[in-house]
Every structure is written in C-alpha cells, then in structure tokens.
Amino acid sequence: MNRRLIAAAALLALAIGTPVAAFAQTSSGPTRADVIADLVQAQRDGTVPTSNWDYPPSTRTIARNRELYAIAHGEQGTATASASVPADSVQ
C-alpha cells in the first residue's frame, strides 16, 4: 500500500509539473544591440537625456538635445540650423 501511495504521488507530481514546463517562455526579449539602437535613436530624436523636472521633455528641450547630438556627431545640416541667424538681426 505504501508503495502504491508513493507511486501515485510521484505520478501526480509529474503530471502537475509537466504543464509548467510546456508553457515556459520561449521567446527572448530585446537583445543588447536592440536596446543600444533604441537609445541611439532616442538621442537622435532628442527625447533623451532629460531631467526629472522636465518630463516628458518639452519641445525646447528636444530641440536643444537634437542640436547637441548633431554637434557631437557631426551632422552639420541640423547643427547649423539654429546658428544660421545673421548676427545683426539678433538684439
């Protein structure tokens, strides 16, 4: 009787444990390269970096971040857009 009880308990444990293994997560999350690409794109878009007091970032912060990114990465078309105002028109 004791042997039969142990066998039934083992069979029950096996039956309960099988569905858990069958539904294990098979797809992985984003890779390190995906995360880095997302961060670079966010920097290029101007949405990062931002401070806690300016969240979500204002349009002014986004424009400034885009300008800084363009200066740092040599994208001249974007960087000179704000610097193209003639000096005599600034008061």
From TrEMBL:
<feature type="signal peptide">
    <location>
        <begin position="1"/>
        <end position="24"/>
    </location>
</feature>
<keyword id="KW-0732">Signal</keyword>
<dbReference type="Pfam" id="PF13663">
    <property type="entry name" value="DUF4148"/>
</dbReference>
<protein>
    <recommendedName>
        <fullName>DUF4148 domain-containing protein</fullName>
    </recommendedName>
</protein>
<dbReference type="InterPro" id="IPR025421">
    <property type="entry name" value="DUF4148"/>
</dbReference>
